[in-house]
Amino acid sequence: xxxxxxxxxxxxxxxxxxGQVVQELGSAEDVxxxxxxxxxxxxxxxxxxxxxxxxxxxxxLWFREDDGDLIDALSGAAQGLEDSGxxxxxxxxxxxxxxxxPGDISEAATSAGLARTTSLSVAPHWxxxxxxxxxxxx
Length: 138
Description:
By secondary structure, the chain is α/β, with parallel strands linked by helices.
């Protein structure tokens, strides 16, 4: 990673752009507030919640091992997403409560009809995995 990318902050590294609608799912007390604020600053608007009726450009899905079925969560997140949009699955980092094994993430993504593209550290305690619909489905 270059110095410019390191200085760019997580929202910029996630590709969050001004004017995008970012839907947040799975939020709880343990989510990273600095990342949330950075996304809102990058887009120029507040995150929208589960009750958002229109499609989103990006979905940020906070998910922990005990949150239920990851395939169902990813499938649900994909339903509210623009065709060219992305899901950022945010999971606790290795060694943290709620850690989700990367193999489970890959398997769930495939089962939900999504393709993994990028993984990065989005916050001190959270990793992010970017997923999109395969180009053949777009």
